[in-house]
């Protein structure tokens, strides 16, 4: 996702992310409305972890969800760097479907 963010022009869109590197990259573009999930920075993975965020995601309207993960099993369950990130991305994927 960071590689995509680097290529994204300064256009009028809203981006919601838990990625520290993406926040840093897109923060340089004035027209992009950048929303961070906040929480505790997991330096090893470069992302913010916020367990209380899962319940708040239900109010988001998502037009397009672009994400990366460690893997997806045959039942469609996401695997990621930690369980909170997997739950976070699973919820966003359901909201975008």
TrEMBL record:
Q: Which residues form the DeoR-like transcriptional repressor C-terminal sensor domain?
A: 1-96
Q: Which SUPFAM superfamilies match?
A: NagB/RpiA/CoA transferase-like
Q: Which PANTHER family match?
A: HTH-TYPE TRANSCRIPTIONAL REGULATOR SRLR-RELATED, L-FUCOSE OPERON ACTIVATOR
Instruction: Kindly provide the name given to this protein in its UniProt entry.
Output: L-fucose operon activator
């Amino acid at each position: 996702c960071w590689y995509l963010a680097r290529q994204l022009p300064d256009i009028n869109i809203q981006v919601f992310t838990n990625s520290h590197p993406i926040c840093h990259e897109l923060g340089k573009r004035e027209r992009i409305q950048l929303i961070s999930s906040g929480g505790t920075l997991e330096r090893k993975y470069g992302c913010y972890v916020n367990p209380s965020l899962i319940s708040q995601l239900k109010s988001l309207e998502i037009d397009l969800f672009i994400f990366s993960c460690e893997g997806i099993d045959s039942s469609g369950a996401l695997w990621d760097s930690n369980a909170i990130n997997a739950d976070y991305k699973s919820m966003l994927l359901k909201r975008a479907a």
